[in-house]
Write a structure and sequence with these properties.
about 300 residues, alpha/beta, D-Maltodextrin-Binding Protein, domain 2, seven-stranded mixed β-sheet, 14 strands, globular, disordered N terminus
Length: about 300
Amino acid sequence: MKHSMARLSIILLSLVSVGLTGCSRKEPLGVHLDRKTALAPMTSTRGPKPVRLGMGAMITPKEGYVYYYQLKEYLAQKIGRPIELVDRSNYSEINKMLETGELEISFVCSGPYVEGHDRYGLEIIAVPVVNGVATYHAYIIVPSDSPVSEFRELRGTRFAFTDPKSNAGKLVPTYMLARMHETPESFFKKVIYTYAQDKSIMAVAERLVDGAAVDSLIWDIYLRSHPEIAKKVKIIAKSPAYGIPPLVAVPGLDPSLKKTVREALLSMYTDPVGKKILAKMNIDRFDLPPDNAYDTIREMEAWVARQKRQK
C-alpha cells in the first residue's frame, strides 16, 4: 500500500510540473509564470504531428490554466491528433509565432486578433460566450479607499497596464487619454506593465500602483474566487462592450483541421464531458461571431494613431 501511494504521489507531481506551467499568482510548487517554453511537449516521434496551440490570452485568471489544459486534452481526443500547448510571456511573441507559422491556432486578446487579421489574415475559429454574451469590458480600478472617483483624476499617478498589445489593459485607457488630448507619458507619473490581468488587480489592491485597466472577465472571476480582494479595490470607469478574445487560426491552416476544431468547440456544450470543462472555465459555450464585432477596437486604434500623428 505504501509503495502504491508513493507511486501515485510521483505521478501527481509529474502532472503538476508538466501540465500546469504558467497557472497562478498563488503559484503551486513547480509553476513558473515567466518560463518561455512549450508546455506539455510531445516527445514521441510516432503518430500524427501535434497541433501547436498558443496561450496568448485567457478569459480566466492564470490560476485557471488547468482548465485550458483540460480543454486541450478534450480537443485532442475530438480531432484525433495530439495538441501541444505553447505559452509565452507577452502577446507580441504569440502573434509573431502565428505570423511565422510556428503556431497553428491560439487564444489571443482582441487587440492582437485585430492586428493579425488586418495585417496577415488571422481567422476566428470560435469565441467563448460568457453569461450569454460574447463581449467584455475594460474596467479602470483604484484602491477602495482612494479619493479618485473618475479617470481624469488619475493625472500624475502610478498606473498599471497589462500588455502593450492588450485591448482592455492598454488600448482602452490610451484611447480615453487620446480623447482628452493626452498620452500615457504626458498624463501619468509612472506606467508599469504587469503582463497579467490578475497581477494588475493585485498591484492595485496592494497599492503598488494608484490605478490599473483590467479585463472585466478576469475581474469578475478573480474577485469571486478571492473575495478578500474585493474589499481593497473599486471600479471607477467601465468601457463599452468589445468583442471577446477569440481562438484563431493562421491563414492557410488545413481547412479540414480548422473545420474539425471548430465543430468540436461549437458542439462542446452538448457533450457531458465538454460541458463540465466549460463550466469550470465559466464559459457557456463557443460561438462564431462576425469579424465586425471587433470594429470598435479598430476605431479606437485609428483614433489613437491620428492623435499621435498630430503631435
